[in-house]
Specification:
By secondary structure, the protein is of the alpha/beta class. α3 packs parallel to α8.
Amino acid sequence: MQKNRYILTLSCPDIAGIVAAVSGFLRDNGGFIIESAQFGDPYSGRFFMRTYFSAAKPAKDLERKFITIAEHFKMDWRLYDTEVKPRVLLMVSKQGHCFNDILHRYSTGNLQIEIPAVVSNHKDLAKMAEWYEIPFHYLPVDSGNKAKQETKILKTAEDLKIDLIVLARYMQILSSNVAEAWRGRAINIHHSFLPSFKGAKPYHQAYERGVKIIGATAHYITGDLDEGPIIDQEITRVDHTHTPEDLRALGQDIENQVLARAVKLHIEHRVLLNGNKTVIFR
């Protein structure tokens, strides 16, 4: 009999018996554990677990039977079928480096996702989306229509059954309503100069200060700007010979890498929220 492959993720108060209960449940239901990782946080008192396993039973049957265990341990949990590709909504503005990198990884199979649509407040990257045969939704934003356009974004995500929103250099601040609605399901990328070098020209500011390290940070969005749970970060060293243009080029390469890694970690269900932090099972 052909077996399906699933990923079970959970978090709950850290008490004795959780691993035994989960492994026993899988044994009793014909499950075979392929990979498993767990972490008990002594500060928050919560336990986190990710288990990759195979089983002949359909997901609905496993979910129905697991509810008793989940309720006993007060678990926040999800069961994912690995054959189902997450549906990702890409949001962009004018800068195309992260956008192009994600699309390339998607088209080559490096990122196992579906991209039903792209949303942008500018038309600059429409041809790139067209080349990849992805519908492009142009939703320009100004001070008078921001709330209306955000409503359209949320409606688009709902209609397309989106699992994850990726802000691939989308240069608009989303409202706290959007951030709350997509808590743990919307990833942003920014240069790690924040909060020291905010504004339109962070690399020029960094150049003027003579920084020795540049980098990028991928995080989940929250109502607090650029303060969400961090998923991944990367840095590289620079020196006095680097011009602002050099810093920008290096920074954009790092942004590509960090955003792609964050998306991959998320779609493989390796990221669990722990308050304003994350637990990453690599």
